[in-house]
Specification:
The protein has 2 domains: 129 residues, 3-Layer(aba) Sandwich (Rossmann fold); 41 residues, Arc Repressor Mutant, subunit A, CATH 1.10.10. It is elongated, with a radius of gyration of 24 Å. The longest helix is centred in the C-terminal third of the chain and has 23 residues. It has a 5-stranded parallel sheet, with helices on both faces. 56% of the residues lie in helices and 12% in strands. By secondary structure, it is α/β, with parallel strands linked by helices. It starts with a strand and ends with a helix.
Length: 178
């Protein structure tokens, strides 16, 4: 699910249509309280956030909301959106964790490419977080690699690992390596 946060209904509808045509689901909101409620959804994959949620053009509202979103959903990528984007605002947004910055008007093809990249990068990061090996797994792999490199010779494998042959044997026994 992709969250669209923009005070302009036409923008929300336009982005929603673009996403639907790209085979993606979205929910669109206009205010900060609605955005903070929606970002808590467990199926939220990405936030597209306008820098200016009222008639102002300072970008402060969007930056402040970005900071709150990053606290509530740190793993959810955020793409900032603005018709009044400046380089300092974009740099500030990136500093607070935005993954990209899109200016209005946008080219659908480029915008969708940024969305797909943000989603892909977030999935890869999630997979890496879920597949962090335990110390025992890392130790098993190191021992197995040393044994392969030493063609099964325990003395040579122990030397490669910087331990005694007896220590290697005990660790192999403890870790169930035969």
């Amino acid at each position: 699910m992709i969250l669209i946060v923009d005070d302009d209904k036409a923008i929300r509808l336009s982005i929603g249509l673009m996403l639907r045509q790209g085979g993606m689901e979205s929910v669109a909101v206009a205010t900060e309280p609605e955005a903070l409620d929606a970002v808590r959804r467990p199926d939220m994959e990405l936030v597209i956030l306008d820098l200016n949620l009222t008639c102002t053009t300072s970008g402060r509202q969007g930056i402040d909301l970005l900071r709150k979103v990053r606290i509530l959903a740190p793993a959810v990528p955020v793409i900032m959106l603005s018709a009044w984007g400046t380089v300092p605002l974009a740099v500030e947004a990136m500093g607070y964790g935005a993954v990209d910055f899109v200016t209005k008007p946008w080219a659908n093809r480029d915008f969708m490419a940024k969305i797909r990249k943000a989603l892909s990068d977030a999935r890869e990061a999630d997979e890496r977080r879920q597949h962090v090996p335990t110390l025992a797994d890392a130790e098993k792999e190191s021992i197995r690699k040393a044994l392969r490199m030493a063609d099964g010779n325990l003395s040579h494998a122990a030397e490669m690992l910087g331990i005694t042959r007896q220590s290697l044997y005990r660790r192999m026994e403890k870790l169930g390596i035969k």
